[in-house]
Design goal:
It is built from eight helices and three strands, in the order E-E-E-H-H-H-H-H-H-H-H. With 377 residues, the chain is mainly alpha-helical.
């Protein structure tokens, strides 16, 4: 395993006559000797990340390729959206470079260090016969595609096929809960802001006649504004912490579906090879049963059977290889998922406790002062 430190930073909007888009700086540090430089910085846009993800999915059946954030047409230049996308792209590259198989891929190296990426990737797209719209279609379908059916005999994969849908529903339910929590926090913050504004107005109206009361109301307004900022920060932390983690897990579930479907496709290729072999063997048997057929035709048919047999052997090996690889990938996902959830929940609990302590401290420190002022007012 080589060491990588990859960061996606500094998103910048680019305005062109026909369209606008956002570019990101991708900074890479590595000790991989196949890279030209130990340290490099390149600029990439979302479609470039999309190309990389699609290439790795195509080249590595059985691997749960780290997903990229979804495409979005509305609000794609909003500050919060750009930051969330940057974070998603950042996580994707870090997971790719930490993967024992993906980190040595030539397309990943090309993505991380090519200085003439746009022109070079255009050639690669033409060679792969997939244009940008096809790649976008692949990315959108990866997030929503259903599992392909196959006669499953392995209990491990049967369990995972059932677990994927259940996990997705659990995550979506949790996501709705977080959205409700964020909405409540924002409503609380807005209410605190309204109370602060009303208190400030009242304070100004009695400033000349009741200076002590005015001071009390001013302190009351200041207290509510401080609490408002805390509630707003909590809502933002919920989105960048718990919600971001859940969104990432949902995208990974989509990647698991893609990997499971890749295994199914290798099974289908194996069965197709078996069917071809059966047809060719049947044709050979019919020819052999007729004594008047020339031996040269029998030799040709025998060669066809031998080729089909090789295809069956190879496709069976491919299916077994992909199955074993995917088992390792899913086991690794479980471990990484538990670690990420544990870390995120602990961070969430810590931030929530600190925010609550800060709110209590503000109320305890400020309210007695307000009460004392009110007594003299």
């Amino acid at each position: 395993m080589f060491r990588f430190d990859v960061r996606v930073v500094d998103p910048q909007k680019v305005n062109e006559p026909m369209s606008s888009y956002v570019i990101y700086k991708v900074k890479t540090w590595t000790n991989n000797p196949s890279y030209r430089l130990y340290e490099s910085t390149v600029t990439r846009r979302y479609n470039d990340f999309l190309w990389l993800n699609s290439r790795l999915v195509e080249k590595f059946p059985g691997v749960v390729v780290p997903p990229l954030p979804e495409k979005q047409a509305v609000g794609r230049f909003d500050e919060d959206f750009i930051e969330n996308r940057r974070l998603g792209l950042h996580k994707m590259l870090r997971k790719m470079t930490a993967h024992h198989m993906l980190q040595t891929d030539q397309d990943l190296r090309f993505f991380l260090e090519s200085e003439n990426f746009t022109a070079d990737v255009g050639t690669k797209k033409r060679e792969s016969s997939k244009g940008l719209m096809n790649l976008l279609g692949d990315a959108m379908s990866n997030a929503t595609q259903t599992l392909l059916k196959m006669p499953e005999v392995d209990e491990f994969f049967e369990g995972w096929r059932n677990q994927v849908d259940a996990l997705e529903q659990q995550l979506k339910g949790l996501s709705k809960g977080i959205e409700a929590l964020v909405r409540i926090r924002r409503e609380m913050a807005a209410s605190m802001g309204d109370m602060a504004d009303a208190s400030a107005v009242f304070s100004a109206s009695v400033e000349n006649k009741k200076p002590r009361l005015s001071e009390t109301l001013g302190a009351f307004a200041d207290t509510h504004r401080r609490v408002q900022k805390i509630r707003e920060l909590q809502a933002k932390q919920d989105l960048t912490g718990l919600q971001a983690m859940i969104d990432e897990q949902l995208r990974i579930v989509g990647s698991i579906r893609v990997a499971l479907n890749g295994r199914t496709k290798t099974y289908q290729a194996w069965q197709t090879a078996e069917g071809l072999l059966a047809r060719r063997q049947d044709a050979l048997d019919k020819v052999v049963s007729v004594s008047k057929i020339r031996t040269d035709k029998i030799s040709v048919l025998q060669m066809d059977v031998d080729d089909a047999t090789k295809q069956v052997v190879q496709s069976r090996r491919d299916f077994q290889r992909v199955s074993e690889l995917l088992k390792d990938e899913l086991s690794r996902f479980q471990t990484a998922r538990l670690e990420e959830v544990t870390t995120t929940v602990r961070s969430f609990a810590k931030e929530m406790a600190e925010s609550q302590r800060e709110v209590i401290c503000i109320l305890i420190c400020k309210l007695p002062e307000s009460e004392q002022r009110a007594a003299y007012a």
